[in-house]
Design a protein that fits this description.
The complex is a heterodimer of chains A (105) and B (335). Chain A has 105 residues and is α+β, with helices and mostly antiparallel strands. Chain A contains 2 helices and 3 strands, in the order ββαβα. Chain A has helices spanning 42-53, 78-82, and strands at 18-24, 31-38, 61-66. Chain A is elongated and about 65 Å long. Residues 5-9 of chain A have low confidence and may be disordered. Chain B is built from 13 helices and 2 strands. Residues 5-12 of chain B have low confidence and may be disordered. Chain B has helices spanning 22-36, 49-68, 70-74, 83-108, 114-122, 139-160, 166-196, 199-218, 230-235, 243-261, 286-296, 300-313, 315-334, and strands at 271-273, 278-280. In chain B, strands 1-2 form a two-stranded antiparallel ribbon. Classes of the chains: A alpha+beta (105), B mainly alpha (335). Chains A and B meet through loops of A and α4, α7 and α10 of B.
Chain lengths: 105, 335
Amino acid sequence: MNPTAKPEATDNREEWPLWEVFVRSKAGLDHKHSGSLHAPDAKLALEMARDVYTRRQEGTSIWVVRSDQIVASDPGDKDMYFDPMEDKVYRHPTFYKLPDEVNHM
Amino acid sequence: MYTQAMDLMPKGDDKPSVPLSATEQQLLDRFEARIDDGGFVEPKDWMPEHYRRTLVRQISQHAHSEIVGMLPEGNWVTRAPTLKRKAILLAKVQDEGGHGLYLYAAAETLGVSRDDLIGQLHAGRAKYSSIFNYPTLNWADIGVIGWLVDGAAIMNQVPLCRCSYAPYARAMIRICREESFHQRQGFDALQVMMRDGTPRQRDLVQDAVNRWWWPSLMMFGPPDNASSHSVQSMRWGIKRISNDDLRQKFVDATVQQAKVLGVNPPDPELRWNEARQHVDFGAIDWDEFRRVVGGDGPCNRERLADRVQAWDDGAWVREAALAHAAKAAAQRKAA
């Protein structure tokens, strides 16, 4: 698909781009995806993300990223993409049966 | 895996060199108040230059340790006794590579580049954990590395999950979650040799324990009274538990595991001390530690040469991938 082509209906509208919003709920934790919003630029995207996604003090920090900058795997390929890890049970600690005295290792 | 980085900094590099301006002093006070409060520091927050330098050094040396740590174990991938053990060993070595990558990425949040860090390692200007400068001579070494070396690493790394620098702490949480399998597979491999093995195979396990025991205790770094950098690092929440306390914890746990396994750590002074409620142990040969850290361990030159060769041999792959990406981008632009 040509990324510069727009659907006809929006041809003559100047639509604000879409941004993905990531919120850190507590100091020290990862940012988690909260949702998305439209905004004309990065500065406004941040402010709007604050108003849309942290109205109840859900966050201590916000990241916004242009949605068209995100590269994602195809959920349709889930099986062939993640299957190779399925039969490697030995990567899990529970695969090894140790004597009771040392089993907390 | 773990690095003794905190204790390996060049002398005189642990004090701020320039007097602070009033604004800087104010920022520093705020920073220290946050640390005292048990708070976390994120990449874009203000931080003292010395805190940044200390972390870059510690995290990068930790990353180097993961990557160099792949070598002694990689030595046995083609000679693992069964297909099962080979698959497990491959998965473990792959994990170490992954741990190195998490850590290099955490270091990069502090404004350094991974290529520069790797360049320092290859030029012999960066350190990595002394433990990887010992050879893996028999198959039992692989089991003992999992049991003792990864066991010591876990003991070191668990407190780092609460490190004040949040990207490092988050990397450590991920690493610790994956590390448990490393220690267990090691103990499991040794247990099979001790339980089902021939007398000769049991001797191999004891021989491996004899060689790895003391270097494992050295992984916790110099004794507290000789560790000049620990105080500031404790103060800043980079380090949470002292070298000697961690070492004692490790000895207490490991002596009991050795009993279950049926091997004897090579220390005649090991005995339970009722008054201390800890296991007493003999004196560590710190001259050996300094020698190995200083570049004169059994395998220092071999390890570094292998890393440099792997980097050089991979140059064409890095170049080809970049060239391909540039070509594809040019084609998209033209289309």
